[in-house]
Amino acid sequence: MKIIQINSVCGHGSTGVIAVEIAQLLKRKGHECYIAYGQGSTDYPNSFKIGSTIENKLHALIFTRILGLQGYGNILGTRRLIRWIKSISPDVIQLHNLHGNYLNFPILFKFLAESNIPVVWALFDCWSFTGKCTHFTACGCRKWETLCKECPQLHKSGGVTYFFDRTEKMYKDKQKLFSALPKLDIIVCSEWLKNEVQRSFFRGRPIHKIYNWIDPSKFAPVEDKTTYKRYGLDPQKKILISVSAIWMKNSNRFQDAVRLANILPNEYQLVIVGKKQNITIPSNIIHIPFVEGTHELSKLYTHALAFVGFSIEDTFGKVFAEAMLCGTPCVVFDSTACPEVIGDTGYTVPPHDVQMMLQKVEEINKKGKRYYSTHCIERVKLNYNYEANVSQYIDIYQRLCNK
């Protein structure tokens, strides 16, 4: 088979890594795989950059920020993409994240509908079935079940826009264009997301739940006592770790981290990993902006007593599973797919209830981390297995090719 994947990034970021990992297993099984991407760069050989940096920046500024029409720019880049797709003549096209100011989705989907190429779309957020939002749980909006308009998150979720609310137009365009595909299978990464998609205009389409995966060659328990010195940690204190791509000042995630740090007994230290944006980190939180590779991150996970998850909007929660594969139990908020990922290996608490989060941390401390570790590792290996889960993607491709 020849497969083309389309994603915002390639080889980095959670979805970019997923795309490359799918491609690697396809190649091992004797298939061809190409990846078209929109942002950044990649060292993946069979790749195609959609548009130019200038075109992407103009898309972000003019179409998204000013006009409120994310996904309507990059006309030239999308036409070049279509010519490239025709030159490859793929058996299946695998879509991932199409938002990110790099693609004109009306042009792409008109081509896909006319080409009759089978399409598989892996959803990692909710952009595909809302006017523009990637998530809607925090604001409690359910307009997408009927018609998006008067968006309560115009300046927050998805493509932030400063002037115009075009969510009604975008919702109607998505509904019309996405529904026109003659061959479309949907993949979701959690039961929670599957239930939401079944309430959207995708209802009636084949919807497959395939969990994201963790590669055990990248994450595993790694004991290294130099980890404490390397990151300025106190070896006499127990580590609570939380990982996010970015920590922002006004986000609930960061505010909850601060609130937890303020009530922690002296025997604990809170470590947050990830970039920061316009925030000053309080002295009672240890901030690690960047970790060099998954092996180093595995060391931090391994030495932590628990992973504390402050997200209330996650369609999967890959960092939870990474920590679990290193034998570290999680305490997460009971929201979206967060409890689904950890199952009965850790604890869930009501959203933003850091007092109860601390109680569960102390319960882990009392029982001892070893009480949880084996169960954590077994759950990841059973449910989030790299080869098994990617093989499910490939099975769908083969079924579509054989129709």
From TrEMBL:
Residues 230-369 form the Glycosyl transferase family domain. Residues 17-217 form the Glycosyltransferase subfamily 4-like N-terminal domain. GO terms for molecular function: glycosyltransferase activity. Its EC number is 2.4.-.-. Keywords: Glycosyltransferase, Transferase. It comes from the Bacteria. Coiled coil: none annotated. The keyword Ligase does not apply. The keyword ATP-binding does not apply. It holds the Pfam family Glyco_transf_4. InterPro entries: Glyco_trans_1, Glyco_trans_4-like_N. GO terms for biological process: lipopolysaccharide biosynthetic process. This is Glycosyltransferase. It comes from Candidatus Bacteroides merdigallinarum.
